[in-house]
Amino acid sequence: MRLTTICCAVLLTTCAASAQISDGVGLYVAEDELTDYGQAGEGVHTVYLVLTDPSVASGVYAWELALALVGPGLLMPGDFEGNSVNYASFPELSVGVGGGLPSSAAAVLLSTVQVMILGQNEPVELTIGPVSNPPGGSLGNDLPVYATWDGDQSYPMQNMYPSSGDIDEPVFVFNDSSQGPPQSETWSGVKAVYRD
Questions:
Q1: 14 belongs to a structural domain
Q2: Could you give the CA distance from residue 191 to residue 186 in angstroms, rounded to a whole number?
Q3: Numbers of helices and strands, H then E, in the chain
Q4: Would you say residue 101 has pLDDT above 70?
Q5: What is the CA radius of gyration of the chain?
């Protein structure tokens, strides 16, 4: 019974830690699959920039953030969703969206991003932070932001929180060996610990 209680507590803690955060922003392998790591050989790969669980349902009318890459690779612009224009120089993004993007869903695709991997099996980390101009971003708090519509001729800004929980931590990693062994090996390891 005690083992079952411990396993359930660990499982619940793990699930709670991986749950979406309101106004989260991250890079993922697919627009509808929130997986933030992948194995990739040399070449160009697409990742999806997604706003998760927007706190305001009136739409996304503008957004700004800066992307950065650490490792053997290059960032390249992808395609923006909606009738969008980037007013900054990539990899900084200050994007206006004509007509807005609907934000009533749990995830809003903002853009695709192309990543050229230049090394075999070497980690490539992607981070999301604020734009550099103005310093600290539009709200001056070192976070990415998006603008909504309040129906009264103004566009209130909302903070976006990197899915990693910190602007200094990667939101996506290619070829990360620390992601652990496949599930079957992990489960075997857990069972071996509790064998008599």
A1: no
A2: 9
A3: 2, 13
A4: yes
A5: 19
Q: Phi first, then psi: what are they for 162, rounded to 5°?
A: -55, 140
163/64 Cα distance (integer angstroms)? 15
- What total number of domains does the chain contain? 1
Domain holding 156: CATH number?
2.60.40
Residue ranges of alpha helices (H) inside 19-161 are: none
Specify the residue for token string 């009738």: 83
- Across the chain, mean pLDDT equals 80
List, for residues 1-35, the tens digit of each pLDDT value.
Answer: 333 333 333 222 233 334 567 999 999 988 777 78
What is the C-alpha to C-alpha distance for residues 87 and 147, in angstroms, rounded to an integer? Answer: 15
**Domain assignment of residue 35, yes or no:** yes
In-domain check, residue 2? no
Burial of 191 (0-12, 13-18, 19+ CB in 10 A): exposed
pTM for this model (two decimals)? 0.78
Cα separation of 57 and 60, whole Å? 8
Contact of 34 with 24, CB cutoff 8 Å: no
**Alpha-carbon span 152 to 193, nearest angstrom:** 61
Distance in angstroms (rounded) separating the CA atoms of residues 125 and 76:
14
